[in-house]
């Protein structure tokens, strides 16, 4: 973190810049989450049009007997239930109220990681099960896989809604305590106020680079997703980007302490 305990001037400018940058990153993250939702909807349509996906992502060829395929899907259902329990626990924690900004950021980071984990679970494990070559029990396997995919989609939606709720609550906590005294950084950057503002300008530049990335992805999504694989690749990139923005905001921007300027 950047500690500005020795600064006597430039505090107002630094605080204003930091708050504006935080708000801009929040808005960019919202765009990313909306894009994820749009890709979700389009990939669902692609799945409906091509329900028997012949995925080559897995290292193993799951050309199993129908009984084994159904058993494997049941096993994945169990893994899904474990993730539901995790989300339930986080949801209770959020509902009981977030006391500090640090609490909010910790929970938000956990939710971002969970969203990525669900994405990976769905598109590496569930879609890695090939049902198109089954001679028997195909209908049962397809039904189970589609239901599990839908359940994971719904769970991801819950996670994204929780992220939005935590965003709103952390914003309120920031307003109540706008001058955060962060101790996350390992070094004590006792800089002059000019240096602090320059550092914020540098972070603004990094933010602009991420905006360009989102713009590019947005154009790609608007032009239409041709294949399910396209949708999954873009979705994975968006999930990673959401996590990157989260880290950028709460390690870099909030690492700048202006309370003692």
> What shape does the CA trace take?
elongated
Strand elements, count = 2
Share in β-strands:
under 5%
Radius of gyration, in Å, reads: 22 Å
Alpha-carbon distance between the termini? 14 Å
Poorly predicted sequence stretches spanning 5 or more consecutive residues? 1-7, 51-64, 178-191
| Helical proportion, percent range | over 70%
Name the structural class: mainly alpha
Main sheet strand line-up: 1-2
Largest sheet: 2 strands, parallel
Order of helices and strands: EHHHHHHE
Structure notes:
The chain is an all-alpha fold. The chain has one domain. Helices cover 73% and strands 2% of the residues. It contains six helices and two strands, in the order βααααααβ. It has helices at residues 11-49, 66-95, 101-126, 138-176, 193-222, 228-253, and strands at residues 2-3, 256-257. The chain has a two-stranded parallel sheet. α1 (11-49) runs antiparallel to α4 (138-176) and α3 runs antiparallel to α4. Mean pLDDT is 78; it is low at 1-7, 51-64 and 178-191. Keywords: Coiled coil. Residues 11-38, 73-165, 200-251 form a coiled coil.
Topology overview:
Blueprint: E1 2-3, H1 11-49, H2 66-95, H3 101-126, H4 138-176, H5 193-222, H6 228-253, E2 256-257
Parallel strand pairs: 1-2
Summarize the structure.
With 261 residues, this protein is an all-alpha fold.
List key phrases describing it.
2 strands; single chain; two-stranded parallel sheet; 261 residues; coiled coil; 2% strand; disordered N terminus
């Amino acid at each position: 973190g950047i500690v500005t305990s020795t600064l006597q001037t430039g505090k107002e400018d630094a605080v204003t810049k930091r708050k504006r940058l935080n708000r801009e990153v929040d808005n960019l993250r919202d765009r990313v989450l909306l894009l994820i939702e749009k890709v979700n909807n389009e990939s669902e349509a692609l799945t409906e049009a091509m329900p028997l996906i012949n995925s080559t992502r897995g290292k193993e060829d799951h050309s199993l007997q129908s009984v084994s395929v159904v058993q494997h899907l049941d096993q994945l259902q169990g893994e899904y239930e474990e993730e539901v329990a995790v989300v339930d626990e986080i949801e209770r924690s959020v509902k009981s109220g977030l006391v500090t900004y640090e609490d909010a950021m910790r929970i938000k980071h956990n939710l971002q990681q969970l969203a990525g984990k669900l994405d990976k679970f769905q598109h590496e494990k569930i879609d890695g099960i090939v049902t198109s070559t089954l001679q028997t029990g195909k209908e049962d396997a397809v039904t189970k896989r589609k239901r599990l995919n839908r359940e994971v989609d719904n769970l991801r939606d819950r996670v994204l809604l929780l992220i939005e709720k935590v965003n709103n609550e952390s914003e309120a906590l920031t307003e109540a305590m706008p001058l955060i005294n962060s101790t996350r950084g390992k070094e004590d950057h006792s800089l002059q106020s000019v240096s602090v503002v320059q550092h914020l300008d540098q972070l603004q530049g990094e933010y602009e680079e991420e905006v360009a990335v989102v713009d590019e992805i947005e154009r790609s999504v608007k032009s239409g997703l041709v294949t399910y694989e396209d949708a999954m690749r873009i979705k994975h990139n968006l999930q990673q980007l959401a996590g990157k923005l989260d880290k950028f905001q709460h390690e870099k921007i909030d690492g700048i302490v202006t309370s003692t300027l």
